[in-house]
Amino acid sequence: MNDFQAIADRVEIEALRGEFTDAAMMRDRPRLASLFTPDGALRMPNIPAELIGREEIRAGGERLQSQWDFFVQTTHPGTILLDGDTATGRAYIQELARTLDGRQGLNYAVYHDRYQRTAEGWKFAERVYEVRYLDASPLAGSAPQAAWGSGTNPADATATPAPAASFADPASAERLERVAAALRAGGFAAEILDDAAAARARIKDLVPEGASVLTGASETLRLSGIDEDINAGGRYDAIRPRVLAIDRATGADEIRRLVASPEFVVNSVAAVTETGSLVLASGSGSQLPANVGGAAHAVWIVGAQKVVPDLSTALRRVEEHALPLENARAQAVYGMPSAVNHLLILNGEARPGRGTVLLLREAIGY
Fold first, then answer.
1. Which residues, listed in sequence order, are joined to residue 358 by a DSSP beta bridge?
2. Is 323 helix (H, G, I), strand (E, B) or coil?
3. Taking residues 42-53, what's their average pLDDT?
4. How far apart (Å, rounded) are the C-alpha atoms in residues 187 and 165?
5. What is the C-alpha separation between 117 and 121, in angstroms, rounded?
6. Would you say residue 193 has pLDDT above 80?
7. Dihedrals φ, ψ of 138, to 5°?
8. 138, 188, 211, 176: which is closest to 350 by C-alpha?
9. Burial 301-334 (b: 16+ CB within 10 A, else e)
10. N or C: which end of the chain has fewer CB within 10 A?
11. How far is the C-alpha of 355 from the C-alpha of 165, rounded, in Å?
């Protein structure tokens, strides 16, 4: 390797490390994941977390990001040892952070890195995060929006800041009972289950074998295994695989008919209120007709972190929490952003018992 190539490699690896910090600060998880090789690893024993592959790194980063009130990371140059198409190195990190549940502090850490030259340039093959110093004392400062109210003008500092709402923490047992009672008063059937595994088993009781079933595009369904059970298990007449097999240019009418009126729709929601309302958001709107009444029966699986006091908070949860996470997923999977183009609010069920809400005691999905 000549001196010019070595200099170029060092500059590119240093830029890679700077890009990592920029993607973390900008909360751009798909970009951050793209900085790794396809089988790259991000290991953080202190958290603890071990993420292998770009999809795990993206999804794991989003879970961490959803817990932040604010986060600041600074990277300081360290060593780079070149060895042909591979290299090793260290980068030194200073971080300030506060989470929505009140944890906060300052730390200094080291990233122990392995790098790989690829057709796309240098990438991380592995980053291992080691904390060298941690101070969990309350931070004296705050994020500007917290200090200055809803605006960005320091002159507004006398305004009382709105309390930061945590949209990722599971609701208490008491709140879940309150939600279930309100849903039942509105004509929904409502059950409280321990976890996603219990919901997965309950679906088999609620949805008879052979029924036509449409599933929503839901992280809750995907993470719980319910999506796979319905669409790949062979037990049901699954609508989604049929839709995906139809040419969208010539079969648009057939697609609309299929998704509008299945026997069952199984989905999740973006929020459920303590007053008994369900809030669903959609970019295309295609899944909403079945939820609002087109399907003969509906089942919604709802993680405990989706409970909010009222509709105004539910809409905040959609915009401030669910949309950024879904937008990152859509960018990574489809190469295009998501949007809240359609909102569905179900305040009650005109046909009592048509819709069943399975409230989980655990958090799952967005």
1. 191, 301
2. helix
3. 89
4. 29
5. 6
6. yes
7. -55, 135
8. 188
9. bbbbbbbbeeeebbbebbeebbbbbbbbbbbbee
10. N
11. 29
Contact 268, 175 (CB under 8 A): no
The CA-atom distances, in angstroms, between 308 and each of 201, 304, 328 are 26, 10, 23
Helix, strand, or coil here: 102?
coil
Residue type, 356: T
Helix H segments across 214-351? 219-224, 226-232, 239-244, 252-260, 288-289, 311-317, 323-334
Q: Distance between CA atoms of 109 and 166, rounded to whole angstroms? A: 27
Q: In the structure encoding, which two tokens stand for residue 44, read together?
A: 């953080």
Least confident of 89-98, 160-169, 174-183, 185-194: 160-169
Give the strand pairing for 307-308 and 271-273. Answer: parallel
Q: How many CB atoms lie within 10 A of CB 53?
A: 16
Whether residue 265 contacts residue 330, with contact meaning beta carbons closer than 8 Å, is answered with: no
Instruction: List the one residue out of 42, 74, 83, 73 whose CA is nearest residue 60.
Output: 42
Beta strands of 119-174 (E only): which ranges?
A: 121-135
Give the model confidence (pLDDT) of 242-292 as tens digits: 999 999 889 999 999 999 999 999 999 999 999 999 999 998 889 899 999
User: Of 243, 237, 195, which is closest to residue 217 (Cα–Cα)?
Assistant: 243
- 3-class SS shares of the chain: helix, strand, coil, % to 5: 35, 30, 35
Phi-psi region of 124 (alpha: psi -120 to 50; beta: other; left: phi over 0): beta
Q: Which one is predicted more confidently, 3 or 144? A: 3
- C-alpha distances in Å from residue 190, one per residue of 175, 199, 277: 13, 12, 12
Predicted TM-score (pTM) above 0.85: no
What per-residue confidence (pLDDT) applies to 101? 66
